[in-house]
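Lab notebook, bench 4. Still working through the backlog of constructs that have no structural model yet. Next entry is a single chain of 329 residues. Request: give me the structure tokens for it.
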Amino acid sequence: MKILFWGTPRFAVPSLRALTDEGFEVVGVVTQPDRPAGRGRRLQPSPVKEAALEQGIPVLTPERPRGEEFLAGLRALEPELSVVVAYGHILKREVLGLPPMGSINVHASLLPELRGAAPINWAIARGYDETGVTIMRMVEAMDAGPILHQVREPILADETASELTLRLAELGAEALVEALTLLQAGGLQEVEQEHDRATFAPKIDRTTARIDWTRSAEELHRHIRAMDAVPGAWAELDGQQVKLFRPKLVEADEAGELVLTPPGGNGGPPPPEAPEPGQVLAADARRGLVVQTGSGPLRILEVQPPGKRRMEARDWILGRGVEAGRRFR
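Model written out:
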């Protein structure tokens, strides 16, 4: 089977490698053009382009996957099937229907739930206990085609979007090979999605990633994990944006000890203050960084101050980056 592969990020690389490892003939790869990256803003190829070139596979990098010249280039490759994994553009009907066997997609959710650009992030943010991958027939509507194969996968406690992405990338590669093997053998049944059950997972950005400290500790525990590592959940501290990672819920017995005590006067010890959402309850070597939310405290294990690398919160505290009583906004 001659396959034209479409993909861009690291998530797609295991699927590309699985196809070649299993003996499928990948006649070409379509990926997004090189983009500036890093401090020097030098052009960098996509992870899929790098993987394709390592294997000597022809690579196409159109700014937009359309136009007669581009289509002629695809026809010259004579693909029998297109496999799309996180390519990054919506494909037109003439592109989807160009191979005789059409186009299939690896999507990181259990469709029809979480259609869209960021299913892994929103599965965590919305508190799902389970997700998975779907191999589907592509149609012009977004993630709405018939389901060919699905594999379920639990979401682990404290798991971040970065960690779940790695697991689902490998799971998606395995599911893709299984689906293609069944397809070749004529043992694959296409099942229409239940469209009235569809939910959506829109693209995330820095605005989405900002932390709203009035939300509950449980919600922010999910939100911060969901935004890891890009774009990274963030909040302002003294007018500077700080990214926060690796949240942990605080046990009830410890939460009762986390109070803010204002300076005492002549009348004896003052009563504890009621902390405001975003206020730092603890910033020391023993307890680490603990911040008040709308429902109680939340511990943060890693941070990235502006212009610095990602680091353990304890290192930031020892470097006097934060202290109890200050407030994230």
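Notes after review: The longest strand covers residues 240-249. The CA atoms of residues 133 and 187 lie 19 Å apart. Flag for follow-up if needed.
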